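Design job #97: recover the sequence.
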């Protein structure tokens, strides 16, 4: 936890305000509960005392005195302080209280506690204003919530639980809210670092040409500056594409046949490692044709850059998903780096060795495009080389699979139905290279 971070300060501020509110609320709740319990006990005791006081005035008090379950202790105490009648629960007990209400205030409440810590809540009712009038005591042992601090413990535990929960939720919510900002800060820092290299190289070449005009070939300087400018332009273009992918403005989706799209991208490749395509028919998705073409092109360029002799592309449908797999026979990607390669500006040593240029954004852009189309892009295990798998929501049903084979720079021509009849399984379309 960074004490200076917005997340930490927001959590501390929220927790502090909530703590004050919980303390005030907890004290008020404790007093309210205690007051309510006391009122209930004294009200029941008052009713019992008034009942037997009226019975005494009418001379109709039984012996022993029957009691209710909530007020078990009832005693009649004469003017000399002697218990003359009581309930079974109070039999043999000394007077519950020494309180003797005056003639003008014959009903009073009292909580009497003995030396052993036992407290009784009672009502004292003077039967009549006469000097020798007996007093009726009706009461019960003090409830445990009033006699102990259990109520405070329960309220405190609940308050702590609420405080911890709200603090955690605040920490999580603020962190979640700020996470995109933190990613943008990291992105800006990384972008600045990546842009600094070509800018520094360009500046060094120009300064060298300015300081030593007789020793520097202007043509070499211009060519080097152009190469640095190309790299800057590539990085800026990729950054703009990333921004558009994360922005609200998206191209209108269209129905795209993935097999045809992959075929077209392979057909535009220049000389280099050959690419074999195995594409199913009617594997269709909704999305941006330009973006998906960029995604496939990135995967093909990456695979050819690392392949030894061949690249294989398959287009199929699996479980309601369109699947495009691009596999090369190169060194592959170590399992611990299979997520890292999709981060922006991340290039493994193998990639830098094979191609010192590039923006380092191709795979990051590809994954963003996949996510923008509600799909996934990941690296799966492969016997040889690396296997990039793109999964997109499928539209309609896919037909039977067919094998198409192309070489870079060559044109795919639909063969006649009577060509290779023995090799064409039912439902397959065959293509010829060249």
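Job complete. Output follows.
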């Amino acid at each position: 936890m960074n004490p200076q971070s917005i997340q930490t300060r927001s959590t501390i501020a929220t927790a502090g305000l909530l703590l004050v509110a919980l303390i005030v609320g907890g004290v008020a709740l404790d007093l309210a509960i205690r007051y309510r319990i006391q009122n209930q006990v004294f009200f029941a005791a008052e009713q019992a005392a008034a009942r037997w006081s009226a019975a005494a005035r009418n001379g109709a008090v039984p012996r022993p005195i029957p009691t209710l379950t909530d007020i078990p202790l009832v005693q009649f105490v004469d003017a000399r302080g002697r218990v003359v009648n009581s309930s079974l629960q109070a039999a043999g007990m000394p007077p519950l209280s020494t309180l003797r209400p005056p003639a003008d205030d014959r009903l009073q409440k009292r909580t009497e506690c003995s030396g052993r810590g036992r407290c009784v809540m009672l009502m004292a009712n003077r039967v009549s204003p006469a000097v020798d009038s007996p007093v009726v005591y009706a009461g019960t042992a003090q409830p445990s919530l009033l006699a102990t601090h259990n109520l405070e413990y329960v309220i405190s535990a609940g308050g702590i639980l609420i405080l911890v929960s709200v603090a955690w939720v605040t920490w999580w919510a603020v962190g979640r809210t700020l996470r995109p900002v933190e990613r943008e800060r990291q992105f800006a820092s990384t972008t600045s670092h990546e842009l600094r290299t070509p800018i520094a190289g360009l500046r060094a070449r120009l300064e060298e040409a300015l300081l030593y005009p007789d020793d520097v070939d202007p043509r070499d300087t211009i060519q080097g500056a152009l190469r640095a400018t190309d790299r800057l332009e590539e990085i800026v273009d990729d950054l703009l594409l990333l921004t558009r992918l994360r922005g609200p403005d998206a191209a209108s989706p269209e129905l795209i046949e993935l097999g045809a799209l992959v075929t077209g991208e392979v057909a535009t490749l220049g000389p280099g490692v050959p690419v074999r395509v195995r594409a199913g028919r009617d594997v269709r998705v909704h999305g941006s044709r330009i973006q998906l073409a960029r995604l496939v092109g990135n995967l093909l360029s990456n695979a050819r850059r690392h392949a030894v002799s061949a690249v294989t592309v398959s287009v199929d449908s699996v479980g309601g998903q369109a699947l495009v797999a691009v596999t090369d026979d190169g060194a592959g990607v170590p399992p611990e780096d299979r997520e890292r390669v999709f981060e922006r500006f991340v290039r493994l040593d193998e990639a830098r060795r094979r191609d010192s240029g590039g923006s380092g954004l191709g795979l990051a852009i590809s994954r963003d495009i996949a996510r923008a189309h509600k799909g996934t892009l990941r690296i799966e295990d492969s016997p040889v080389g690396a296997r990039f798998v793109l999964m997109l929501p499928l539209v309609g049903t896919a037909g039977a699979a067919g094998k198409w084979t192309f070489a870079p720079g060559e044109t795919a021509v639909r063969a006649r139905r009577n060509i290779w009849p023995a090799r064409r399984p039912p439902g397959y379309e065959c293509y010829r290279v060249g």
